[in-house]
Specification:
Radius of gyration: 33 Å
Largest sheet: 5 strands, antiparallel
Helix content: 40-55%
Distance between the termini: 97 Å
Structural class: alpha+beta
Number of helices: 16
Strand content: 15-25%
Length: 458
């Protein structure tokens, strides 16, 4: 049996005590990453802060027991739709992982997005990576202290805004902002915001790549998702080796000049030339850096590129393969199921409960009454609901024939239903509710005394 070769991974020279400074780079993949992340950031803040008809675009309202989504209201009974969305998202994640590796992590994961934002703030306040590294070697100065205090204040402000926005998905964000400005926030809400702000600050500012490597399970099971045709950020060892710096090059040298720029721009602090590693998030920063060097050396780009193991070995890669097709089929099915579910959402939620204290009330020998409690919750545009009863008996309804949903809300309302000349102790009864564009029926039972037995024959 062939043994797995052991590769000695060397720590980059600029890494000191596990700390490194990420160098920002420009390039086509970084532009693509921004085209992906900025709409997601805008969506994250816009869903909460932008209002439609006095309500945010998205709100999980526990007080109203409904989900507000772009001006429409969904009931808690529609929560399986959100579970369906999560399943569809997971299928999309698996599909992308099999096809292109961890591109979600590098281009759309919130942890990566906020890490890049914090790195950008660090670059603005303390200077580029080389300057920050030089400051670390020289020690603190008054100017550096001021710059670092500014950096941490901006990190804290962004963390607080992030925590407020996230909490705004469950509590109206403008109420949170008002309570924060007027210093009338409840201790529970204040504690929650402090915890969320602290976690954001630590994850994106201090821990960063360690979250991706040690806390996120995706980096661990990616090896199960990948196959030999998965296109990930890869170093073409056949073209690049043996590497040699510009002044030491000879005719047998590879294209890699060992400049180390691919390592300096990596937010995970790894050397992609050592092969596929669990910490790699496929952000493609090393591709942009290497392509820039190749352009300056008048060599073709693509020494580091998205490539599969099959492609690097010189064979023709396959895109359509059973595992990828399977995930694609499940993804299409999940999306179709969610779209169908949104066409059958709950517009009128009705609950009818019998009075458990008395099975029935007998007014005379032939008249019986049952009492019920009714609750109606509206998730459409109807304000008034008409109430009626039908069944296999001649029923008479006592109680409000109209329900003003603006006044009653989701309160329980008492009703009495009476019938005469009952021929069966248990009959079917249906409450009918009708409003503007909505209609529903709730079935229940009507109980009465058993009719007297007829005369027996001799």
């Amino acid at each position: 049996m062939e043994k797995i070769p052991v590769v000695q991974v060397h720590t980059p020279a600029f890494v000191k005590d596990g700390k490194f400074h990420v160098r920002l780079i420009e390039g086509r993949f970084q532009n693509l990453r921004r085209l992906t992340t900025w709409p997601l950031i805008t969506l994250f803040f816009g869903l909460v802060w932008v209002q439609f008809d006095g309500n945010p675009w998205l709100l999980f309202s526990f007080e109203q027991r409904r989900i507000l989504l772009f001006g429409s209201a969904l009931s808690w009974h529609d929560l399986p739709l959100l579970a369906g969305l999560m399943i569809a998202g997971a299928c999309l994640l698996f599909f992308m992982a099999v096809a292109w590796g961890r591109v979600w992590c590098g281009f759309a994961c919130p942890q990566s997005i906020w890490t890049w934002l914090f790195i950008r703030i660090e670059d603005v306040t303390e200077g580029r990576a080389s300057i920050r590294a030089r400051h670390d070697r020289k020690g603190l100065t008054p100017e550096l202290v001021l710059r670092r205090v500014t950096k941490h204040l901006l990190w804290s402000l962004l963390s607080l805004i992030t925590a407020i926005t996230f909490t705004g998905y469950f509590i109206p964000v403008r109420e949170i902002a008002d309570s924060l400005i007027t210093l009338q926030m409840s201790p529970a809400l204040a504690g929650w915001l402090i915890i969320m702000s602290g976690l954001t600050y630590a994850n994106a500012g201090l821990v960063r790549e360690k979250i991706c490597l040690h806390a996120c399970p995706y980096s661990r099971f990616q090896g199960v998702m990948f196959d030999s045709d998965t296109r990930t950020v890869s170093y073409d060892i056949n073209r690049g080796e043996p590497r040699a710096q510009k002044h030491d090059r000879h005719p047998q040298s590879g294209d890699c000049v060992d400049c180390g720029l691919c390592v300096q721009v990596c937010p995970a602090g790894i050397d992609i030339r050592n092969g596929l590693q669990a910490a790699c998030i496929d952000c493609a920063a090393c591709i942009d850096a290497c392509d820039l060097v190749m352009e300056r050396l008048d060599k073709p780009a693509g020494l580091i590129r998205f490539a599969s193991e099959t492609e690097l070995s010189g064979e023709k890669p396959r895109f359509m393969r059973p595992r990828l097709m399977g995930y694609g089929f499940v993804l299409i099915f999940a999306v179709a199921a969610v779209l169908y579910g949104f066409t059958a959402t709950t517009h009128l939620l009705v609950e009818v409960r019998r009075d458990r204290h008395a099975l029935f009330i007998q007014l005379d020998e032939t008249t019986f009454c049952n009492t019920y409690r009714v609750k109606v919750e509206n998730f459409a545009e109807a304000d008034m609901i008409q109430v009626s009863v039908t069944g296999n008996q001649n029923y008479e309804l006592f109680g409000p024939s109209q329900i003003d949903l603006n006044e009653s809300g989701a309160a329980w309302l008492p009703y009495r239903v009476c019938a005469t000349d009952i021929n069966h102790p248990r009959s079917e009864l249906a409450f009918n509710f009708r409003g503007h564009g909505v209609e529903t029926t709730k079935k229940t039972t009507f109980l009465a005394a058993a009719p007297p037995a007829g005369p027996q024959g001799n």
